[in-house]
């Protein structure tokens, strides 16, 4: 089925629009209707008025009718806003190139736990345990920052999580001794 253009070819000079339409093949002519009483044609701008035919000047080609390109987003995602709230274009969705996976977080948590455990086992009393835990925690947090900087964020999260838990345990022991009247840090 051939598509029909919505644009008419420009009229030749000296021809009437009805004559130009009659000269085009496949264009149906308006049939005269029954006689009416009253005005034969309402004026322009009134209900029932026939639109005026507008043609292009001579030498201008009609624009090609193009179909809209298929949108990469599904229609449910790109909705037209209602206009109640002002909004701009839809915001882009940013994705991480290397997502944090649960396995990497678990591996980092195991590594941080073993680090805090082995350095805590070097202590002989509560004072040395607090000092070893403080040194191990600061080193582990530095390592987690370095891992996060170079893109190994899952392991960095696990290391920071388990190291934070180890530092909290050391803080509880420090607070317990401090409440008993002994300050363990010096």
Instruction: State the shape.
Output: rod-shaped
Please count the helical segments: 4
Percentage of β-strand residues: under 5%
Binned, the helix content reads 40-55%
| Strand tally | 0
Structural class: mainly alpha
Low-confidence stretches: none
Biggest sheet descriptor: none
Average per-residue pLDDT, rounded, comes to 76
Rg to the nearest angstrom? 41 Å
Oligomeric status: single chain
Order of helices and strands: HHHH
Report how far apart the termini are: 93 Å
Characteristics:
186 residues; mainly alpha; 4 helices; rod-shaped
Would you spell out the secondary-structure blueprint of this structure?
Layout: H1 17-23, H2 102-120, H3 126-149, H4 153-179
Helix pairs in contact: 2-3, 2-4, 3-4
Question: Can you walk me through this structure?
Answer:
This protein is mostly helical and 186 residues long. The protein has 4 helices and no strands. It has helices at residues 17-23, 102-120, 126-149, 153-179. The longest helix is centred in the C-terminal third of the chain and has 27 residues, at 153-179. The model has no long low-confidence stretch (mean pLDDT 76).
């Amino acid at each position: 089925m051939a598509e029909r253009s919505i644009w008419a070819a420009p009229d030749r000079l000296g021809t009437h629009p009805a004559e130009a339409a009659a000269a085009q093949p496949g264009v149906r002519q308006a049939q005269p209707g029954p006689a009416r009483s009253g005005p034969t044609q309402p004026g322009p701008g009134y209900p029932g008025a026939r639109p005026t035919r507008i043609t292009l000047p001579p030498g201008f080609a009609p624009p090609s009718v193009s179909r809209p390109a298929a949108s990469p987003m599904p229609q449910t995602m790109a909705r037209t806003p209602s206009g109640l709230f002002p909004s701009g274009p839809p915001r882009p969705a940013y994705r991480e190139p290397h997502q944090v996976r649960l396995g990497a977080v678990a591996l980092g948590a195991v590594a941080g736990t073993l680090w805090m455990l082995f350095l805590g086992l070097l202590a002989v009393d509560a004072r040395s345990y607090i000092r070893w835990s403080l040194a191990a925690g600061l080193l582990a947090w530095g390592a987690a920052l370095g891992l996060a900087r170079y893109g190994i964020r899952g392991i960095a999260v696990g290391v920071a999580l388990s190291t934070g838990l180890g530092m909290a345990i050391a803080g509880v022991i420090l607070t317990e001794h401090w409440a008993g009247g002994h300050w363990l840090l010096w």
